Target: ABC transporter
Amino acid sequence: MDFSYNGQAVLTDINLTIREHDFMAVIGPNGGGKSTLIRLILGLLKPDKGKIRVLGERPGKHSQALGYVPQNVHINDHFPITSLDVVLMGCLGTGGRFGQSRRTRKECEKDGLVTLERLGMAKHARKKIGELSGGQRQRVFIARSLMTRPRLLLLDEPTASIDSRGQEDFLNLLETLNKDVAIVVITHDLFSVSNYVKSVACVNHGLHYHSQEEIKGQMLETMYECSVEDVCRVQVLSQVLPGVVGHKNSGGRDGNP
Ligand SMILES: Nc1ncnc2c1ncn2[C@@H]1O[C@H](COP(=O)(O)OP(=O)(O)OP(=O)(O)O)[C@@H](O)[C@H]1O
Model:
């Protein structure tokens, strides 16, 4: 798949499969096209060339199968809306009596509370969203995205506003959710997610894919010596990772990883 904004190529020759129960880190330099890739999967943008399939159909057809938490969710701190209200928004706009699957508002509220509980946020359900910390808000937004019971959860830099201790808790939470839902997480901090993810997609206009076997081996350890920006440069990658060259899943445009 290729994609450009106003004729300016952003993603070229992208070939990626996200499998059920995958936990994929999407890494790459600023402006490399990570968020654009997510928007394409969501069906908010259309590729110039090639195609994208979500559960075998065009993106948008199964919009409820995708949960999305964008990079910066701006909330007016004074807006009088509780955590539970935010979560219930996940039920809206999908038809039926109160959202998808014809749930009543009461049923949705019950589901919302269960989801908040799952995310360790039940005690904050009636708190105003503006009174929560960055990490707590992030959990509320994830709860909202889970309300349609998605098969794939797409998270754009979810740990950016969370301290290192909170990040570990958060990643443990994602690991638990991953039992039920595939997760794709854009991150600039490969180090903290490396123990959790099953695959890595390195997006720098092109895409380099690394399977579970690769990242469980020495690869990430070697990568820590470089910044994500370096890792995403083909030349550097092949220098520090000679064993990876020619792997069947890591082919770049010219067949190199
Ligand atoms: N709506 C848009 N119109 C035109 N160009 C855009 C638009 N959105 C993004 N771009 C450009 O596309 C390129 C990729 O942007 P994108 O946001 O996908 O990168 P990213 O890898 O997510 O970056 P970051 O790590 O900084 O969030 C950038 O050069 C950006 O300026």
